[in-house]
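Journal club prep, notes for RB
We'll compare a predicted complex against what the paper describes. Inputs for the NDP case:
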Amino acid sequence: MTRSITILGATGSVGGSTLDLIRRGRADWRVEALTANSQVEELAVLAREFGAKLAVVGEDARLPALREALAGSGIEAAAGGTALTEAAARPADITVAAIVGCAGLAPTMAAIARGGTVALANKEALVSAGAVMTAAVARHGATLLPVDSEHNAIFQCLAGNSSDDVRSITLTASGGPFRSWDAARIASATPAEAVAHPNWDMGAKISVDSATMFNKGLELIEAHHLFPVGLDRLKIVVHPQSVIHSMVEYRDGSTLAQLGPADMRVPIASCLAWPQRMATPMPPLDLARIGNLSFEAPDEQRFPATRIAREAAEAGGAAPAILNAANEVAVAAFLAGQIGFSDIAVTVERMLSRLNHLPAPSSLEEVLGLDTQTRKYTAEMIGNR
Ligand code: NDP
């Protein structure tokens, strides 16, 4: 049976991995809508290849270029934030939410409001909206499937078990490209060094997040919402080989883990086929060749991000959205050469303490307002340095 799919963020790393799987099973899928932000040519090529009904670009000014690139194809073209949200609201059997950053929140919420199945890669949306998003999922009867490899692993390890029996959930972290660097070297890391992840091929923002460990911090908050077993039961362990993607320990002493290659097509396939399985082009796991799996505790002196994120999760309220927005602005400033690598965590922590009086957002509009406000203050703080 053919299934329909919409991919928000189709031109990105997760979007590309998703489309690679669709390409391999072309007859099983009908592509409803594909979206991008500014990469018009890439979007048009994909929309034509997959026969999408609709292609949407985030930047309004790119609409004429998109129309031109799609001329004669019969594919509908649209642009802007409202068009992204409308694309997400169109009926589809599954929507892959793979826009990077809080920019993906409103479209993701639109897909949830439709009561559909949403494969969520866009962790920043869940971190910012938190209870607002999980309440919407429950209210609209939507299904949220975690794409993030760690959360997908946990989701698989929890299947068929009661969360009452969970003793702890352990998120694994590769440790990023600076895992073995000393503090002085980390402080002078360049954007090129930060995006060169040892195990995963990802977009620039999440690659920097992996280097700072804010990625694991965001994932801790993401896990807190997806698997509400209590923050004290969520742990992080550094596992440089990225073979075990996360683990669940039960009260009888059994620990279940999900293993696989460091390739996002595996967790994406798990979501696309859920509750069944589908084939991927991954070679079989060869543990004898891998040889060793090692583990170490996170070093929160050199990488304070996980501590900052845990404190934000404990504080709740507005803190996670502030953390996310400040981090997004700081990462962009680092990539633009405006601040140093270690300034990212310093900036986030300062914004959290400066804005800790702000109330918890209770609607999508309030989350977006808080996000805008935090971005403004963070940009000002960076500009004043
Ligand atoms: P990329 O930067 O590779 O791609 C981002 C996508 O979002 C692109 O299609 C981009 O369009 C679009 N986009 C960017 N900004 C906007 C905006 N303001 N409005 C609308 N669309 C926008 O990111 P990744 O694929 O690496 O990551 C996507 C999400 O998935 C992130 O939240 C990330 O944390 C998460 N994730 C990623 C993993 C990975 O392996 N890459 C693993 C686990 C989670 P354009 O190309 O036109 O700029």
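Talking point for the session: The CA atoms of residues 49 and 176 lie 35 Å apart.
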